[in-house]
Write a structure and sequence with these properties.
It comes from Caldanaerovirga acetigignens. It is a multi-pass membrane protein. There is one protein chain. The protein is mainly alpha-helical. Helix content is about 85%, strand content about 0%. It contains 13 helices and no strands. α1 packs across α13 (about 325-340) and α12 (about 305-320) crosses α13 (about 325-340).
């Protein structure tokens, strides 16, 4: 009997992980904007309370002011980044004619090289290449189609706008009617349940803020390393390009590769092998540092052991893809909060 009771915490832990993961897996696609909206409303709640209590501003108006301030700040930063990006692209376009003659000479050299290779390579090898050319094209097409599919997902503006709209609306209504919602929940749940849910809620709010801080820190570190690397390589517009690469770190799968890989290929085609290799090494170094620091930084800000944070990130990415970077650690935090609240013991 004692043996069975010793196994109870392990059984409860397993059940909690399975149930929370399953619930998120089933509902995340449909309830993500509302979940994000609730998290945002909980984060900005202290500011709204200050407006309401100290400045005597009606809660609904205070919510609108805070949300508009957040949207305006993000909008300004995005417009600033786009404007700077367009400016740098314009300067780059203006310098392209200077490379025309050089590119022509490169293409002529490549053509000459290809003809010379055709004469040198044995006929059997050429026959094999021609025979399997279809398979090579199929492989390359499949490889490129992955990037095309990813690009399609990244430019689904209508879905993104709908997501942002419902996130904003859910943030507004939950922040505005928070007291009424809490009163309704209190009237439904037993008193001892509500106290434990309050513990879970406070843990989740702290963890959501910690997760955002962790991602900002990781992006900041990647940006600083990239900028420093660009300056060491004497890259023009090192600061701007470093910031762009840092921001691209948010994107799933490709991230800064969107800049580094094409740039390295172009540098190689232009005959600058040393610079091309330097870009690849810098990219690998930045990516490696992010992976090494990710578990430690996220674990520290979420109050998780680094190994547990690493496992939650890996399992999250396997189950949910890119969003698993956030969902995995949050599941671990939810399970931890459930146990700390004593919910299962009751």
């Amino acid at each position: 009997m004692k043996l069975k009771s010793d196994y109870k915490p392990i059984v409860y832990l397993g059940l909690a992980i399975v149930l929370v993961s399953l619930a998120l897996f089933i509902t995340i696609e449909y309830f993500l904007p509302f979940a994000v909206g609730i998290i945002i409303s909980l984060i900005i709640d202290p500011v709204i309370n200050y407006f309401e209590v100290k400045l005597k501003i009606q809660r609904g108006i205070a919510v609108v002011i805070v949300l508009l301030a957040i949207i305006s700040s993000f909008g300004y930063l995005i417009i600033l980044a786009i404007s700077r990006f367009i400016f740098e692209i314009g300067k780059l376009v203006n310098t392209l004619p200077n490379y025309t003659d050089y590119l022509n000479s490169i293409f002529e050299s490549v053509s000459t090289f290809m003809f010379s290779v055709y004469d040198i390579i044995p006929k059997e090898v050429m026959d094999y290449l021609f025979k399997n050319w279809g398979q090579i094209i199929t492989y390359l097409t499949g490889f490129l189609s992955k990037f095309y599919t990813l690009a399609e997902k990244l430019v689904i503006i209508p879905n993104l706008l709908i997501f942002l709209l419902f996130t904003f609306l859910s943030s507004f209504f939950f922040a505005k009617d928070k007291n009424n919602i809490i009163s309704s929940i209190k009237s439904i749940l037993p008193h001892n349940w509500y106290k434990k849910i309050e513990i879970i809620q406070s843990e989740l709010i702290a963890s959501a803020i910690g997760l955002i801080k962790a991602q900002i820190i990781l992006i900041f570190i990647s940006t600083i390393i990239t900028i420093a690397g660009f300056y060491i390589l004497n890259v023009d517009y090192a600061l701007t390009l470093g910031i762009i690469c840092g921001l691209l770190d948010i994107l799933p799968v490709i991230g800064p590769s969107l800049i580094f890989v094409p740039w390295a290929i172009v540098a190689l085609l232009l005959g600058n092998l040393k610079f091309s290799l330097s870009l690849i090494i810098l990219h690998l170094f930045v990516s490696g540092m992010r992976q090494i620091l990710q578990a430690k930084v996220i674990g520290t800000h979420l109050g998780l052991d680094p190994l547990l944070a690493l496992i939650s990130i890996y399992v999250g990415v396997k189950l949910f893809g890119f969003m698993g970077l956030f969902i995995g650690p949050m599941v671990a935090v939810i399970v931890k909060a459930i146990f700390q609240s004593g919910f299962l013991r009751s």
